[in-house]
Specification:
With about 160 residues, the chain is an alpha+beta fold. It folds into two domains: about 80 residues, no CATH class; about 60 residues. It is built from five helices and six strands, in the order βααβββββααα. Strand 5 and strand 6 form a beta hairpin. The termini are far apart.
């Protein structure tokens, strides 16, 4: 039997070497994990306390310690748990949550942003070259994303936002 992930919202932060050394952009939940107790579940900590800075980071989960590589996304799940995800898997599994409430962005600006995102997805897979199996899967995902974005754009056009 096949299964599909339920549409849930998560919070995520991409950890880079620069962000490791300057935590001014870290969300509150990540700062809380950083300030947690050493080796306690839900803690973000240095992987090697005696290493020179910048050093590697790890997340302590109930499954054990997981090394965070530069570029990985650190995710806060629906139960407040944190875990990491490689960038390629993140991009195939998650998409930005678009603002749906009235704010400073006009409906036409949001529609234009959606159209641009759809065009980018399509442009990434056009090229007329041979595909590996992994590239073909990624291309299918990008085309699906482009279709979903256009569908959201059409819904936005019909909505009262």
């Amino acid at each position: 039997m096949k299964y599909r992930k339920k549409p849930i919202e998560i919070e995520a932060f991409q950890m880079t070497l620069e962000r490791r050394m300057d935590n001014s952009e870290w969300p509150n939940w990540l700062n809380q994990a950083w300030n947690g107790n050493l080796n306690e579940e839900g803690t973000l900590q240095r992987a090697n306390m005696s290493a020179e800075l910048p050093d590697s980071l790890e997340i302590v989960t109930k499954e054990g310690k997981h090394l965070v590589s530069w570029g990985d996304y650190i995710i806060r799940g629906i139960q407040g748990e944190i875990y990491h995800c490689k960038p390629d898997i993140f991009k195939l599994s998650y998409e930005p949550v678009l603002p749906m409430a009235a704010d400073d962005t006009s409906k036409s600006e949001r529609k234009q942003a959606l159209e641009e995102a759809a065009a980018i997805c399509e442009a990434m897979v056009i090229g007329g070259r041979a595909w590996t199996k992994e590239q073909a899967i990624a291309a299918d995902a990008l085309f699906a994303a482009a279709n979903n974005i256009r569908e959201w754009s059409d819904r936005l056009e019909l909505s009262a936002i």
